[in-house]
Amino acid sequence: MTLTCAQVETVLVSRCKKRMAFVEFAITTNGNNADLNDPICNALQVIGITPANIASVADSDLETVTDAAKLCDLAEVRLLENILGNSDKVTLQAASGTEHFSNFNDALEKIIARKQKELQSKYGIGLGSLSPGKVSLSFQSKK
User: Fold this and answer.
1) pTM confidence score
2) In whole angstroms, what separates CA 39 from the centre of its chain?
3) Mapped to the 3 state alphabet, what secondary structure does 36-64 carry?
4) CA atoms within 13 A on the CB side of 34
5) DSSP 8-state class, residue 21
6) CA distance 122 to 109
7) Which residues pair with residue 94 across a beta bridge?
8) What is the pLDDT of residues 67-122, one digit of tens each?
9) CA 74, CA 42: separation in Å to the nearest integer?
10) Neighbouring C-alpha atoms within 13 Å toward the C-beta of 137
11) Average pLDDT along the chain
C-alpha cells in the first residue's frame, strides 16, 4: 500500500492537534494542508527523497517511502519546531488574571529536545557518520 499525504497529515494532526490549534495552524487532513507541507517535505529530504515541488508535496512523492513511522517521526519534530517558531504570544492579561504563554514555549522546547533524542536513538539521525581515512606518521626531525 502506498503512503498518501492525507495519511501522514492524519498522523501529524493526531499527534499535535492542540499545539497546532494554539498557533492557529490548519487542522485538516485532506492531503493539502499548507501548514503540514513543510514538515512532510523536510522529512522526505532527510530520508533522501526530493519532492518534485517542495512547496506542494504530492502523493507521488511518497511512493518510494519504505518506513512510514520514520517519516512521521521526522515530520512531527519539524512540525513542533514550526509551531515553536510561530508561537509569539508571551503574556496575556485579562480580567481573570495573567496567562504566561512562555510556559507553552518552554514545554515545547523540552518536547522537541526529547523527540530529537528519540530520533537519534531510533534512527541515528543527528549523529555524525563514519568515513575511512588515513593517518600519516611521516615527519622530519631536526638534526
Assistant:
1) 0.81
2) 5
3) HHHHHHHHHHHCCCCCCCCCCCCHHHHCC
4) 2
5) H
6) 20
7) 97
8) 999 999 999 999 999 999 998 765 556 666 666 667 888 999 999 999 999 999 99
9) 8
10) 0
11) 88
